[in-house]
Amino acid sequence: MPRMQELRPPALARTAPFFMHFISTRGASPPLSFADMIVAGLAPDGGLYVPHEMPRLAPTQAAEDWNATALKVLAPFAGGAVPLDGLARMIGDAAATFDDPRVAPLAPLAPGLHVLELFHGPTLAFKDVALQLLGRLIEWRLKSAEREALIVGATSGDTGSAAIAALRGRDRVKVAILHPKGRTSEVQRRQMTTVRDDNVLNIAIDGTFDDCQSLVKALFADQAFAAHVNLGAINSINFARIAAQIVYYVTAATSLAGEGEVDFAVPTGNFGDIYAGLLARAMGAPVGNLIVAANENDILVRCRETGVYQPRGVIATSSPSMDIQVSSNFERLLFDLSGRDGATIARLMRDLAEKGAFTLPPQMHQGLRNAVRAERVTMAEADAAMEDVWQVNRRHIDPHTAIGLVAARRHKRAGHPMVTLATAHAAKFPGAVERATGARPSMPARLAGLMTMPERYEEMTVALAPLRARLSAFAEGAR
Ligand SMILES: *Cc1c(COP(=O)(O)O)cnc(C)c1O
Fold first, then answer.
1. pTM score of the predicted model
2. Which residue range is the domain that position 297 belongs to?
3. Ligand 1 centroid, distance to 162 Cα (angstroms)
4. How many domains does the chain have?
5. Does 351 reside within a domain?
6. Which residues participate in catalysis according to the annotation?
7. For residue 188, which of 183, 184, 356, 362 is within the disulfide window of CB 3.0 to 4.6 Å?
């Protein structure tokens, strides 16, 4: 990977008022430009890339549309690396794939309590907001570098379909997604396997999600293979995804802020979405309290209470996208809480790998308590919330949103609007929604035909060599 300095043309350095670079949370990797960061996965030292300093947000007004706010949020991160007219075009093209011109509209549930609808994109989950933009950024980057790439990912559901929707039909890039055979919902599988573009390959692995993820990790560890196919990742550790998610905190907070700083309850798994909220607040948006809403997989709630971060076995719940043992993006907050001390983070992560847990130093633990609130919500409580909203508002919410809503109600402050992030459309989880409410959610137009369209996927066992051979052939042109 080229160093930042080599990539910075002198003319740009003179004209760009600000040129962000990205450093590793573990402090031992060279910095990258935004352009290189978007196609990199983990830093070579195992850390995650974060901006070397936090920009301030240019003033925004409630009347501004999505595209204008998105450009203000993203330009400080991408400016200098991505030409601003190109960035504006990619933002607009990504937004145009949403079925609501506001992209992330707010809907009132009760006085002072709102739902932020993040499910208007092609795959009906919030991951589209970031991935539709990232897909375009990756295509732009490969074109400017005159390269091709193979993006490989493992999915338990939402990420795979959003990645495929973002990359299908794009130039210079192919995408292969591994899913655990028979372990995703039918809607989730069909959103991946009914895509016909020749640059998309779906592989059903006869194993668990963890098996899929281990295979992907092994592919990345094989440096000869990774270099041969120019292997890339699109997972939630990519900072460009976080940056794109800051936008809806800014639009929501700006439009409600007349009533006081705005609090957000965030259904949390990998900590990416809520971390974007922390950054929105750090950049100066009128964001008040941020509430981590967890299901039975409550590692973050326990860590906030005790200062000890200790993964346990994953519990399967009705909100599967939050069934996560280790919240990768949490490392980014820890880095900030440590005073951006990469050596401390490297030590904590070594403890996690070697002893199965780490303990926060008292100052970092206090910092965590100040930064976020946290709530654990059971499946029964989520079901009750789904039913209640159905009875009172005649509205279906999905099980992930329901977790957020329960946490939102517990933390509602007088004088502060509270926003629950609606991370998926109820129709993605029809079984769980119908069990809780007695009524089946209606299918949005986007899903019409999905259940009858032909599927295309290959099946493989949990074995690296044949997978590597198949992916090499795919990268070289054979579908
Ligand atoms: C991915 C996902 C989440 C969790 O988001 P993180 O950024 O991983 O915390 C919550 N809800 C839904 C529907 C998701 O797809």
1. 0.93
2. 106-125+240-437
3. 12
4. 1
5. yes
6. 127
7. 184
